[in-house]
Each structure stands twice: as structure tokens, then as C-alpha cells.
Amino acid sequence: MNRNRRDVLKGGSLALLGGGLFRRMDKIDGMQTQGAGGSLTEIVKSRSTGTSEKLLLGPTPGAEGPPEPAKVDRLPLEWNKQTVARFKEQLAQKDIHAFIARDQLNIIYLTGYWHTHTERPQVVFMNKDDADPWFLYPALDRDLVKGWWFGGGWEYFDTKHAEGGFPEQGKVVQGKTVDLFQMLLEGMKAKGVQGNKIGIDGKLYADELATAKKILPKITFVDVSDALLEMREVKTPEELALTRRAYTYFDRAHAYARDYILTYGTDVTDYEVAFASTFWINNVLLSDLDLAGGLPHHGVAAMVEIDCRVGRLCAYPHPNQPRFNRIQRNMPFQVDGDAYIGGHGGENYRMYILADNAGQFDAHMRKLWEVSQHTCDMQVELQKEGSTCSSVAYEIHKYQVAQGVQDYIYHRPAHGEGSEGHQPPYLSLGDYTVLKKNMCFSEEPGLYDPKAGVGFNWSDHVVTGVKSGYRMSMVPYSKEWSWIKI
């Protein structure tokens, strides 16, 4: 008996969503395809465009962006080499000719070595004249670290590492517990350190300083984390192009979610819309990437996650309630989420008003929607190089108060956007950072009314420009898109 994937899914835990999910996904997919059939994967691969997808915006003539989407799935090794060279140049101006990075985000940014952050420390070390990086790394990642950009290093088995204990080499030893920071320093000493200063992406604890003084007595450690952060805050053209590629999928997922809501309305939950949209778009995305049959370093940090919430959950910036509520008329509805390709991307939220049984839109929701939507446009216009984060926040908050919605203000308008999600600087009244071209931010001048059970919070990926900012997403902010009748 042949059982296709659909049969397996129907009979498994996903059946908890209700058998109607798959019929509904077929119907939505029918809007997207010409003669699709077979398994879910085949249906997804054969779809073309849907009703809402036709409403996605195109480039604005004369605008500074967004750039054309990248054609690559991740930043190439050459980009990492150029980035390390830029970093070394900055360090040389401070008479620093060697560095170590211990933060996962910095290691990835500099070397392109994508790895999982756990309690197992990983460190990259380079001298000014080193062509390739050296690493402290655990045995479980030995194949990954050696498969990208690797000059050498120091392997330990696991946390906590026993001296001489390497089971993968047939050495099962109950040796004394190894101080991994000491192991790193001894390895660096044996390899050789250029100069008498080492740049490090953070501060050392007192016990680490004592260990460093013992092993490298003539070396001074200098915190250069600010320099690295400033580099990561200002995106290169390659990073922006990769982000734009992520948003081409993100936008299509939003269109799919909108079609799903319009088609099934009150028959479904917010959870189902999110699940169906996420499943659909990731089949599209991952099918387009070069995954090289599962080889490492291909398709890294690539995903689209769509989430949804309806009704009272929209009234809280960070709700702790489950997002499992039936869609009803006369409610706010949010489609949100994150999308990344090669670790580059960001947020994309759109706010909907669902009409009541008479096809009318609630006056209070209209007011909050209109004010919050307008302040999104304000941010784009104000986010230009030379302005300060504080000045952008000031104008937005001033407008909100002038519109009489101060009771519904809960947070700053935006945070910086990076591969980690939230990244400095912040569009906040107390942040006086001067904006530079290609700094990126979310877009979240949200308004919330828990008493009425409504709220509206948007987001996008807004890039700082010369005359104004620009958005990465092409999902409309219009009433045509967002005020819907189900």
C-alpha cells in the first residue's frame, strides 16, 4: 500500500489541526497554481501567483532602494576575507595586530563559520599577517569548522573537557578538568602573537585576566567590541541584497496568508493561518536554494516564519497567551514573522481590521490603525543619514500625543536590525546615535488598548538613506490591503 506524504500528515500529530486544513490549503494553493496536484510539495512547487500577490508593490521610481535581490544563498567567503581585512585595518590604527572573537555573532560575521551557540565555547584568533583564522572548537563541530575557512586550531572534546580525553580518537581518559581559556591562550602563545596587544570582543573577568597575565604577561587585552558592532550596524551592499532576497519570499508569504484569511475567514484560527503560510513558503524557499544534497555550509540560516494573532492578543506588545484563537469579525488581525537567507533579513508585520457583520470598520480601531500606519511612513521619511535616533523617535511620539493616543503608547518606534534580530542603535528618545547610510531598523510605532482588546503594531526593514529611508518589503500599507471583509 502506497501512502503519500499527505496521508502521513493527516494521520499524524498534524491531524490535531483538523482534517479541513489540507482541504483549505489545496483551495488556497489552487488560487496560486495551474493544474497542481499530488503531494503537498508538488502542489507548492507548481504554484505561480495568487490574488494578493498581484497587489504587492513594485519599485518606486527615483527611490534609493531597495536593491536588486541577491542571487547567492549566503555571503561568499571572499566577503568574509574583505570584512576581516577591514577589521584588521581598524585595529592597526590602534596599534593592535591580533584579535580574538568569542561572541557567536562576531565569529559568524568575520569568518562566515555558521555554528550553533551552546555552553561549549568557540573562539576565533587571527594575527594581522595570518591568511586564515585559527579556532578553539569542540569536537562535535570539527567537521563544520574545518569545512569553511580554517587555518588551524585547538580542539577539545566537550564541556567539561578532561585532559587527554578524546574518545573520538580512542582515548578515554578521566583526566583533570581543562580550563579552556587557558588552553586557548597556551595555543596562541605556541602559535605566536603579533604585537603586544590583542583586540577582544568584550571584557575579561578577573580570573581570566589573571590567567592571561600568567601565560601572556607582555600582552594587553583591548576591548574592541564597539568597533565590531559599528561594522555590523552599517550594512554592506552585499548584505542588503541578501536581505532583499529574503524579503521577496517574505512578501509572498504575507500574500498567501492574506488569501487564506479572505478564503476561510471565521472557519479558521490564527494558528492555522500561520502554520499553513509558513509551510507553504518554506517549501518554496528551500526548494530554490542550493542545498547541495545536505552538505554543510549550504542554505545556512535560511527560513521564513509566519506568525499570526487575532483579537485581544493584538492588544499586548509581547503577549504570553497562546496564539490559538478563532478569527472573528470586528477584530484586529496581525500577520507577522521573520525571514532570513544566509542570516540576513528581518521582520515584516502588517495589521488588518476585520469588518463587523454589517461590513463596517470600528471607529476606535480605525483611529489606532491610521495613526500607527502614518507614523510608519514618518519613520521612513525621517530615517536619513545625519539625523539622530532620538530626533526620529521624538517626532513620532510627538505626533502620537498630538493625535490623542498617548494612553496607547507602550514602547519606542524601532530597534536596530541585524542577524540577531534586535541590534543597537535604537530609535528611542535617549539614543543620540547619529544615523549612517545603510543602518537598518525595524518599524514598530505600535499602539495598544488592552481594555478594548485591540492593538496595532507594524514592522518592516527600513534602511537609512541619504534623503530618506526605504523599506525592504513590498507588502502594501494601504486600506485596500488591510481593511478586509470576511
What's the arrangement of secondary structure elements?
Elements: H1 5-11, H2 20-32, H3 40-45, H4 77-92, E1 98-101, H5 104-111, E2 123-127, E3 134-138, H6 142-146, E4 152-156, H7 180-191, E5 197-200, H8 206-215, E6 220-223, H9 225-233, H10 237-264, H11 270-288, E7 303-310, E8 332-341, E9 344-347, E10 350-354, H12 363-382, H13 389-402, E11 414-418, E12 421-427, E13 440-441, E14 447-449, E15 454-456, E16 462-463, E17 470-471, H14 479-482, E18 483-484
Parallel strand pairs: 1-5, 3-4, 5-6, 10-18
Antiparallel strand pairs: 1-2, 2-3, 7-8, 8-9, 8-10, 11-12, 13-16, 14-15, 16-17
Helix pairs in contact: 2-10, 7-8, 10-11, 12-13
Short synopsis of the structure:
With 486 residues, the protein is an alpha+beta fold.
Distance between the termini: 41 Å
CATH topology of the largest domain: Creatine Amidinohydrolase
Q: Which strands sit side by side, in order, in the main sheet?
A: 4-3-2-1-5-6
What summary fits the major beta sheet? 6 strands, mixed
Given the structure, what is the number of helices? 14
CATH superfamily descriptor of the largest domain: Creatinase/methionine aminopeptidase superfamily
What's the CATH C level of the largest domain? Alpha Beta
- The number of strands is 18
Tell me roughly what share of residues is in helical segments: 25-40%
Radius of gyration: 25 Å
What would the principal axes of the Cα set say about the shape? globular
Structural class: alpha+beta
Low-confidence region ranges: 1-16, 44-49
Q: What is the number of domains?
A: 2
CATH architecture of the largest domain: Alpha-Beta Complex
Strand content is 15-25%
Mean pLDDT over all positions? 92
